User: Fold these one by one.
Assistant:
Number 1:
Amino acid sequence: MIFGYKQITFREYSHEILNKSWEWLNDPEIKRLTLTPDFDRESQEVWFRSLKERNDYYIRSVCWNDEPIGAFGIKHLTSTDGEIWYYIGEKKYLRKGVGTQMMQYLIEYAKSKNLKSVYTKLSKTNIGSYKLCEKYGFKEEREIDENIIVMRLCL
């Protein structure tokens, strides 16, 4: 996808992106907005190695002109639904249309797998993601607690 002279590409989630994700997801703001629990390098590496064997997890990286800037995917995949997630780790690329492109990709991927719906868990303080989900027709389904909501899109 091309935005002006900038090109957004979606690629395999590599060890390079895993290392960048370590930085991104340990940034306090990104960690809060993505609801990321504490994790260490060893558990991150074990998780990464497990991806090759898993059918319940789909993951991609996003690059802007070949620069890795984030990751996205669907976890807890079943035959009927899955939990979408996404983040832009390089903050200078926020509000540049990347989230919109990731969301379109995820929805098309979910449809290609004949899922009936997708859902996401959001921090109530993550206004950007909330608005993006609303734009694509996600509806609030329930509150998990005073800080987290679940939104669902029927496909």
Note: DSSP finds five helices and eight strands in the chain.
Number 2:
Amino acid sequence: MEIYIVTKSEARKNLLKNIGFRFRTAEVDFDEKILNDPVKTIKYNSLGKHGEASKIYDGIVVTFDTVIYHRDTVIGKPRNRDEARNILIKLSGETHKVYTGVVVGDRRKRYFGYGETEVKFIDIPKDLLEWYLDREEYWRYAAGYRIQGYASIFIEYVKGDFFNVIGVPIQILFNLLNRYGVNPLKYLD
């Protein structure tokens, strides 16, 4: 049975390829929402994407959603440079949590799980922030950053699953595949 990784994120695809995971890539359009709670948000979005994808793809469908939670606020992807700047200024010198939801299943059954990781940023100097924004890496990423990209220079520490911050909590994905009834080892080269 084919596994379809439904994501527009190259980082997610590359991470799974780097561990030798065999899958087909797929994409769907879904209007993501930001709700008041990070877990409700990622559950709504990842289940919604799964609902759309499972109508199209016949096999095991895997969808994801990642948000940031800081001071009782759920943060998604910035719409522009100014919004990215404002988000990163708020995160500067602070800790925040990264939540990634995963759904594994097909048209008949599906399972949801999520990862939670704490990230601490340094106090980001204004010139470093503008240097970062000039690289335009903030597009398409929760809170406007990729931990494995230019924003790695903002990271003081990570507490928890590093891969969750990239957008693939691997152990949760494997646990959900097992729960679905598929041994993930069969999909590893």
Note: The beta strands are 3-6, 24-26, 60-70, 73-75, 95-105, 110-121, 155-159.
Number 3:
Amino acid sequence: MRIFMSGGCKNGKSYYAQHLAKAQQQAGALYYVATMQSADSEDDGRIIRHRQERDGWGFITVEQPNNIEELLDKCDCGGSFLLDSVTALLANEMFAPPDYAVDENAAVKIADGLLKVIRSVENIVIVSDYIYSDAALYDELTEKYRAALAEIDRAAAKACDVVLEAAYTNVIVHKGGEMFGELYAQIG
């Protein structure tokens, strides 16, 4: 099953996504596709927390901070995947070192690569952050980032069997409820 999960920051979606990926695992490997590149001590802390949360679960961590389709050359497509997160992947591609110039084509590149991954694997949970409901006005660069993330999220949601939203530790099913029911029963 291909699952897209979005939600606000720090609401448990990564932890819930780990349960989903584990529940989907059959005989193949269980992959955690890490996209975050640490920029500061807060990022370091989040990475450590995520590693601790999945310790003992059997995840094989695959660092893939950009060029997401290259994941297919590193892993058995028959495994179960957790890709966390599209949000970090976009930041890495849109503002790539060394000059951190804005790549206006990052959304198209990532969406194309992500669709290749989605079509090539049977079981994947894709995590993204929902950053669209703020009433605040942002600068032009932030709005470009938000628009690019929305473009990628729409493409992934359309290609996935199930679309979930995590809101205040509740999970709302927006697509594929009939498919998701059995998996949901496994993880409660």
Note: The chain has a mean pLDDT of 91.
Number 4:
Amino acid sequence: MENNPQEKRKHTRISINIDAELQTSNGTFRGKMKNVSFSGIFIYCANSANIIIGETCYLKLILQTEPHPNIINFQCKIIRTDASGVGVRLTRVDMEGYQKFKNLMVYNSSNPDNLLDELNKNPGLEIG
């Protein structure tokens, strides 16, 4: 993470292009991740104006569909929307999903040691 005194994020953001599916009270929204950190994700998706800020929802990151589906499921909270998509705060994931997510982040990071150090200091989401 850059040394910017105005930067308030606790986790480094990484750009990864993965299919995502957000399930809310207003329906299911499909899109692509723009960027991700251990605490949140921004997803490009259509009709983001129909998503309610503050709502608890469920997110699927679709790592692979066939022949063996590989999906990470999160509980999350909508924190912002704009014309291009939606930002969510990751709040909960099971242990298997956490391991997959951690591996995905480390594998796609330009500085995996720094990323793991951030994670040790501030885990971000609840595991269980």
Note: The first strand starts at residue 19 and ends at 24.
